[in-house]
């Protein structure tokens, strides 16, 4: 059988791609990739922000659940009198030693100081700071009506001998309880600022379940919670104490120390709305009076704030933007990006506004700032502060 022979012959003109053609194709592919990668980056950023915002919504719901259960919003621990009244209200049978213990954990003497149980001490509003108040309040309390803090499932557990409490209100003898009763929300343990004890050693003041957050306060039994690893934690401000102050330049706020900030700290204060209150007949006269010049956002409930994807709130909490966050008059952002600077000599709300700050841009105060406040989140706007600007 004869096989038919093919008559096909490659054309003498057929050739591969020239170098120029290859370069054109590579250029086109590169252009497509250049267009796609930023779009993918924006999508990933949006997804991460949406996830963080969802968790913020969950936390805010936990606070509302707390109010439904107890008939009151939790305090932010800036004012001891309010803290004490709150717990006497929601736990009417609470033992005196429980309140004494909480006070000693929040006073200005180290918990393991030998004079702790005998010294006259002062309440320290930063001992349980605005971030620690979130976990303390939402993590669950004991069902024991007399011992909601130290009873079974409460936030505190007495350590065993030989380092057990020498008295029911001895703060050196307690540790944080990571298995609390009926929490308002479930915290992800990996994002609590909690250092667990070494089981190979005896439990002690230095080897116990305790917090390792880097605020100005010493190590204690009050952990914080963050939305992203190594970010500043979520903070809570109670409307009743937004403008709390000690009569000097120390006003309610949150600060932590960090080497990643231009000023050496990262901090935040409650946020003002754009609603002005009536001006005084003369000057405000005091910084506390000046704090009433504008209405805070969420004036009847609470503010819950968290840093955005950069993990920072901002470098500026007072007027000089220096390395001491509260040595001069405090400053506050407004929801529209303006900055309120408390001034006792001012006589109108408008006179309290910084003329050099708008849209959260503080480079007039800290000239190399990346303006981290812009991507912060809260419970009273849909996304980030920057995204809601017109």
From TrEMBL:
<keyword id="KW-0488">Methylation</keyword>
<dbReference type="InterPro" id="IPR000983">
    <property type="entry name" value="Bac_GSPG_pilin"/>
</dbReference>
<dbReference type="InterPro" id="IPR045584">
    <property type="entry name" value="Pilin-like"/>
</dbReference>
<keyword id="KW-1133">Transmembrane helix</keyword>
<feature type="transmembrane region" description="Helical">
    <location>
        <begin position="20"/>
        <end position="41"/>
    </location>
</feature>
<dbReference type="InterPro" id="IPR012902">
    <property type="entry name" value="N_methyl_site"/>
</dbReference>
<keyword id="KW-0472">Membrane</keyword>
<protein>
    <submittedName>
        <fullName>Type II secretion system protein</fullName>
    </submittedName>
</protein>
<dbReference type="Pfam" id="PF07963">
    <property type="entry name" value="N_methyl"/>
</dbReference>
<dbReference type="GO" id="GO:0015627">
    <property type="term" value="C:type II protein secretion system complex"/>
</dbReference>
<keyword id="KW-0812">Transmembrane</keyword>
<dbReference type="GO" id="GO:0015628">
    <property type="term" value="P:protein secretion by the type II secretion system"/>
</dbReference>
């Amino acid at each position: 059988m004869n096989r038919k022979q093919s008559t096909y012959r490659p054309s003498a003109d057929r050739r591969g791609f020239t170098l120029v053609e290859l370069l054109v194709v590579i250029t086109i592919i590169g252009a497509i990739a250049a267009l796609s990668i930023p779009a993918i980056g924006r999508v990933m950023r949006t997804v991460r922000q949406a996830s963080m915002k969802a968790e913020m919504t969950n936390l805010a719901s936990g606070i509302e659940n707390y109010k439904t259960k107890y008939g009151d919003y939790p305090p932010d621990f800036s004012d001891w009198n309010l803290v004490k009244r709150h717990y006497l209200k929601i736990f009417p049978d609470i033992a005196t030693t429980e309140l004494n213990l909480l006070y000693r954990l929040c006073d200005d003497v180290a918990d393991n100081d030998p004079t702790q149980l005998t010294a006259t001490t002062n309440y320290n509003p930063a001992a349980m700071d605005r971030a620690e108040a979130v976990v303390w309040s939402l993590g669950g309390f004991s069902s024991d009506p007399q011992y909601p803090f130290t009873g079974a499932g409460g936030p505190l557990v007495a350590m065993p001998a030989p380092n057990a409490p020498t008295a029911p209100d001895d703060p050196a003898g307690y540790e944080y309880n990571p298995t609390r009763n009926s929490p308002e929300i479930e915290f992800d343990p990996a994002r609590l600022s909690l250092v667990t004890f070494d089981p190979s050693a005896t439990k002690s003041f230095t080897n116990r379940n305790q917090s390792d957050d880097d605020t100005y306060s010493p190590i204690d039994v009050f952990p914080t919670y963050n939305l992203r690893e190594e970010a500043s934690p979520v903070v809570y401000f109670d409307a009743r104490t937004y403008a709390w102050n000690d009569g000097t330049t120390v006003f309610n706020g949150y600060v932590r120390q960090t080497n990643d900030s231009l000023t050496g700290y990262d901090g935040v204060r409650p946020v003002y709305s754009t609603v002005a209150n009536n001006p005084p007949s003369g000057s405000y006269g005091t910084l506390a009076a000046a704090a009433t010049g504008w209405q805070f956002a969420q004036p009847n409930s609470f503010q819950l704030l968290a840093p955005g994807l950069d993990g920072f709130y901002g470098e500026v909490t007072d007027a000089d933007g220096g390395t001491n966050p509260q040595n001069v008059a405090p400053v506050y952002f407004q929801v529209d990006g303006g900055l309120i600077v408390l001034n006792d000599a001012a006589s109108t709300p408008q006179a309290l506004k910084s003329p050099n700050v708008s849209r959260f841009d503080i480079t007039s105060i800290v000239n190399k700032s990346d303006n981290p406040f812009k991507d912060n989140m809260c419970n009273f706007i849909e996304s980030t502060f920057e995204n809601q600007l017109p």
